Structure formats: C-alpha cells, structure tokens
Amino acid sequence: MVATKDAVHPTEERDAGAVSHEEEQWYGTDWYQANRNVRRLQIRIVKATQEGRWGKVKALQRVLTHSYSGKLLAVKRVTENQGRNTSGVDGITWDTPEKKMAAVHALKQRGYHPQPLKRVYIPKKNGKMRPLAVCRRDAGVLPSVMVSYAYEKNLQNREL
Questions:
Q1: Helix axes 68-79, 97-106, angle to 10 degrees
Q2: Is 135 exposed, middle or buried (0-12, 13-18, 19+ CB in 10 A)?
Q3: Which of 54, 75, 102, 104 has the most CB atoms around it within 10 Å of its CB?
Q4: Rounded to whole angstroms, how far apart are CA atoms 90 and 84?
Q5: Which residues are within 8 A (CB) of 3 and not within 5 positions of it... i.e. 6 or more apart?
Q6: What single DSSP character describes residue 67?
Q7: By the 8 A CB rule, do 98 and 66 touch?
Q8: What is the pTM of this model?
Q9: What is the rounded distance in angstroms from the CA atom of residue 145 to the CA atom of residue 46?
C-alpha cells in the first residue's frame, strides 16, 4: 500500500483516555457482551460473599453499579418487562431507544435523591383495595442487576 499525504495513521484518529459510550445506539449494543460482563461480576460477588470477603464484595458491587454494561442491562430489565408501560411517580416512561440510552447515561450514584413512593390502590377479587407503592423509574434500576444473580445463586444453594 502506498502512503499519501492524506492518509492518516489509524492510531492518530483515536483519543486517549476512557471509553466513551455517548455515540452508542440502543439497538447497536452488543447484548451478549454486556450480559457476559455483568454475569462475570455477579459470579465474582457471589464467590466473595461465600468466602466472607466483605471488602471485596463491596468493591465488586461498586464496579458493577458503575459499569456501563450493568447500567445497560438494568435499564433493559426495567423497560422490557410486563410493567414497561407503567410510569413511575415522575410520570416518565422510557419507551423509545433514545430515552433508554438517555436513561443509561443519566444513571449515576452521586446526586441521587429518591422521591417518596406514590401510593396507588388496586382492586382485589373480594372487592377490597390493595395498596401498591410505585417508585420512580430510576429508583430500582441498578439494585435489580446487583441483587438478581446473588438471589438466584442463593436459591440454588438452598435447593441442593
């Protein structure tokens, strides 16, 4: 290959530093890789818990909640289930890919102040009303990814 004046070396186009996910699209996400990353961290959390290494557990939970893959899967879990059309107290639903990606980028640990739960009453078969507490969309997103695998693993251990 002949080099020309206009040819740019491939390494010159890249910026140094951390990976930026701002350009990534919801449907262009590598879900297999995201699942793999999260599952690997969840397995490490379970092993550290079984060994009683609580400092390691805390550190791995922080890595999981701050990881891009963890945030992607958390938003996916909340937006692609039966209750996906139900809005939270804030009245927001993440129904488009753009809103989902905006939610992923908006998830952060610092500066989060939870709003009070909204109390809704739903009818029971016997005619009485059952109270139901509804939270904001982003309130339960990250804990859902952290807890799920550890809970499943504990259930499997109890059945053995």
A1: 130
A2: middle
A3: 75
A4: 14
A5: none
A6: S
A7: no
A8: 0.61
A9: 13
What does the pLDDT profile of the chain (160 residues) look like in tens digits? 455 555 544 555 555 555 555 567 888 889 999 999 999 999 999 999 999 999 999 999 889 888 889 889 988 888 887 777 777 666 778 888 898 888 888 877 665 566 677 788 888 899 999 888 776 655 555 555 555 555 555 555 655 4
d(CA 91, CA 33): 32
Radius of gyration, CA atoms only, the chain:
21
C-alpha distances in angstroms, 93 versus 47, 105, 118, 121?
Answer: 36, 16, 15, 20
Going from the C-alpha of 94 to that of each of 75, 85, 106, 138, 156, the distances in angstroms are 9, 8, 12, 10, 33
Looking at residue 86, its amino acid is T
Measure the CA–CA gap between 157 and 160, rounded to whole angstroms: 5
